Fold these 2 entries.
Entry 1:
Amino acid sequence: MFLILDALAAGEGKRLSSLDVIGAGPRAIAGVLEMFDLEYRIYRVEDYLRKGAGKFGVLLVSAMTMDEPVVRRVASRFKGIKIIGGPITSDPSIVPRLGFHLGVWGEGEVALESLLRRGLSVGKIPQDLEGVPNLITGDGVLTRVSNLSAEDLKRFRPSVSAVKFYRTIPHYRSSRVYVEVVRSCSNFNRPKIGVSEEMCDLCRACYEFDLSKRLLCPQGIPPGCGYCSIPALYGTPKSRDKDSVVEEVRGLAEMGVRRIVLSGADFLEYGRERLVNGPLTHPYEPGPNVNAIEELLKAIKELSWEYRFFFEVENVKPCLINDEVAEVLGRYLKGTAIHIGVETGDPEHADLLGRPCGPDESMKAIKKLREAGLRPYAYFIHSLPGQNDRVVKMTLRSMELAYRYGAEKITVYRFRPLPGTAFKGYDVIPDRGSKMIAEKAIELNRMRKRELLGAVIKVIVAPSVGKGSYAYPLAGGPVVKLRVRRRPKIGKVLEVKIIRVLSDRLVEGVPIRKGSS
């Protein structure tokens, strides 16, 4: 039997955030196993380490770079065949370092399918690995890199029934279940920090509209923003066909899922590759495929009325937001959260980082989306390469401007140098400016939370933590601590009145009437 361990964002062994997220990766793995009629179970890594599990012959771990500590503990405990995949394997040396037999690099569906056909389906490590793409051998050697075609993406279907294995935290009846609609990112610009300016001036590929020329860099700099590995790992964007997404969402709704996120590095990439001849390597030319976006949103909206679930989209690039796009998003997603990366408030710094758009475009996008009835969340990163006093000052100003333009939440991350990125070798040096950026986010978020006092919102009851009862706002927002005498049933929908701000991430609410489930 196969054991799939979801270690995504578990870090040292306990998730500290995103407690209501069920990612698409483990369900994608389960979908490949189901193609072969193989029996499997999915465990959160925390549950496996705390309770153990039955006898499994093959372990498949899905993890991020930050999850190395907890994955190390798992690898030392499990005695069967061990295979690891996910963003953590963007550094192939992780496979021998942690004692795994094999690893999967980047897109893993074809690699796993090939391994199963060659003997893994009966619990044996294949002897013949020649020709298996995106495979990392036990000594850390990557075979050959191959990105999925649009046809392959259509052929592989993430499992719907696998969601039933999430019965702790996150629990599938209350959590956001991610449904991948488009894979990768079209930003094939490169950062300009630590590169030869002379060679860049001679090449100019990052400034070209010739899509094929933008694929390769003579200096070997990975594509995309310097802190992001997505284009390097997954190639150019490719979208799932509408019918397969609708089928997956319908199946999840029939399983009892109440919150669905249509996910992708940028939701507005959906269908864009159909507008070009050749690889989609330009981040904003052509603009969004508005027809494809609207057809998908319309179909999901109709399903949401039928099955009574809530849905939202995740990230959008500011440079793809225009009046037409904002109107369409507002029509189908009014009242929902939507995430916009700003990262830095300095336009020169943004260009050095490889970003396709600057902070001014981000502010305009926040304003347009807010006016269209959405609730933008603005993302920033501190301690990035190139951060100086000017960058800090302008970033603080952009955070305040984003708040003034209606950003409901300001999220700040600490820069992490990731394998496979242009900034992989940089040290993280938080300074006084980094602290100021982090503190500004807390200040602005507390102010925004106070605006919720007295508001009545719909929430869905989450699994209990300790002695408290908690719920997640259906339309997004801070976690709500419930003031109740008895713990409500997980997945129950309530209307609550917000009575107190507990922190920049937590508020307290009291149910005002009997909810529906």
Entry 2:
Amino acid sequence: MLIKSAAIDRLLREHPNLGERRFGLPDIGIRMDNEAFNPTVKKIADAINFYGYEVRDENITTVPDTDLGGGNPMQFRPFPLSIEAMKKSLDEGNLYRYPYTEGDDNIRKVLLSYIEQEGFINTEPYNYKDVDEKGLSVHNLTFLPSTSIAFNMIVSIISKPGDVILIPGPNYGLFTIRAERAGAEVELLPLEKEDHFLVNPEKLANKIDDINDSLQKVYHWRKGYVPRVVAFLNTNPNNPTGKVMGEKEKDRLQKIGEVCLKRGVFVIDDLVYRDLVFDKDNIAKPLASFPGMFRNTISLMGLSKSYGMASLRAGFVVADEIIIREVINRIFQEMDSSPDIVGQALKGAFNATPERKEAYDIYFTELRLKYYEKYQLLKALVNGVDSVDSRYKEKISDKILNVLGSEKGTKLLSGLPYVTFPEQLEVESGFFAILDFTRIKGMRYNQEMITSEKDLLKFFYKTCRIRFLVGQSISWPYSEELIGRVTFALEDDRMIKAFYQMYQALLLLEEKEDYIIRKNILEDQEQMAHIKIDGWRNAYDEIIASKYLKSLDYTKQTERYISSFDEYKDLVLVAVRGKEVLGYACFDPIEKTGKYDSELVSLYIKPDNIHKGIGTNLLKETAKELLSKGKSNMIVWCLAKNENAKAFYFKRGGKIVEEKKVKIGEEMYPSVGIYFDLTMLVNRTIEE
């Protein structure tokens, strides 16, 4: 008889990630084709994984942290008519029946009446008897447990391998990951300050055309399918910026719809936050309410955020019948049917009755005021109480003083040091806000320089066990900035205490160095060439033949660096003071055959700047870059007689693991390979 290993052991070999017990977010997952995420999505996935899992320590099960990055809405009573509808259904005693895959037609009729009340219209209807005067029928919608499931299904329905889903940045990062897991590629449309973080239709058109042109060039030789942009995700209001495109932006919306319609690109219109706008007269306008846009628009609506029922997971899709038919097919094939109770809750919230209008007005008048007041509280905590709406200033001041006491509260009333909100970004809806921590960049805590968003998150977690989503998680379009996305849906006292902890932590920071570390630019190459040659002559005097050292030429080295700049521009970090280059590090992240998956190719410091911590910081920033590219270890080759260099690397945790001879000029010299674990290198504290 064939003896095989235990089933559980076999499973673990096939899925080694299951051998690790995780606290926090589960594993992000992989693409359906088992290929790696594209670099854009990989960055987002890495940042979300870091926030949700990696930054958390072994004490998480006993010492809770404060999560300012969570997605829960404010604790508020659920929408009453949804509760009534669910109770009525339960009282009728129909739980014994299996629900229809497409959902009960009576529920769909109610949802249909709601969307038509909201202006949905199909000006190019099919010739079916049940199609009404708006060009719609119950076959234009169906419901599911959450719009996230609906989004996954829609992406897999409308895209083939290689097709692109265009998603704005900033965005809800998990949608970018889900789009790739569902089989599409993701490209980002940056939402920029000059456009007040709203979609610019002209830039949208150019982006679609550029992507399609690029795909045509790559795939032109194929006789079969040529991938293309198949959908644009229009989140309205935007998560996480809170920007709204309502009646005031109807011209912009019309142009967005026309750009996509003309190019055969579906619009996935995510309206989940629609009702959480501060201005009741500027509720997000559905794109499917514009004549001619319905058949090209797939609308997502739901209960979780706005209606106080996130735990229920209830959403519905409105689209052309052809799309809805396939959504229903997928529901049947993958989950059989959606729970009827989900449909009952949706029916209670989304209907066209006078009772609903009255309940809606009462509910959302109160809810919007509460969210707006919470946003004003956040503004006070960040920018100081003088920055808030004057109607709330006294109330918020009293609240902060009552929670913290007079001494602590008075300090916090002036706001956080170094932190502000991004320019041109005033929140108009929802319960998320973006904070700009860029002024912290380059400052130090316990000799550790904060240069990246991961550093920022580690700093706050070490000092006060606070975490939040960083800019990389949400596709923030300005990579040089340090950004955090925070919620203001927390209880007021909890939020006040958390921001006072952040205030105290920020006071621990030491001032910036007088230099920064960045990627090299073309203008740096001449200085880098001089630093290399001067470094060799300084370090290798009496080690390398003087004939060779004398032959080194500044001009030729500069020319070599300039000629190879395009190839290596992303693999060199420089330390600069103003325009002066103080030192640089060159690294190679290309996976090696064997034990080492990256290499520090060179590290040079201007001779008069040695022993000032610049080399250490360049080494650590190199390690961070390599970690961000999925690398785990690094080797650096050093001449065996270069005792100063070896001492430098040993002090920072390096260990000799290899030996070989290298040819320099006409002679051979023994060298040693020094190994680093990248994580240990980044976390190591060095006394200069």
